[in-house]
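Quick illustration, no need to memorize.
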Amino acid sequence: MKAIYACLLAAAGVMSAGAVQADEALAKSKNCLSCHAVDKKVVGPAYKDVAKKYTAKDEPMLAKKVIEGGKGVWGPVPMPPNPSVKPDEATKLVKWILSLK
């Protein structure tokens, strides 16, 4: 019985790792990684820094910023709007970013 639980836990870990890779692939496909990196500031803040600053309650606001852009929160360089990002994609991206704590 313990072996079954161990296998289930291992499978859950592999499935969640796959979701993380898929969301990172989404970020690449939407050119987010042109201005951001997971662990260092590029043009915009590191995603790990974003994850430290915000919580799950901020997801709707952050998803809106992914699509509409923003300015002033992380310095003088504005984030341009990303109209090609659909609302469900923006939500996936934000959930992935916030998971990087």
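The two ends are 33 Å apart (CA to CA).
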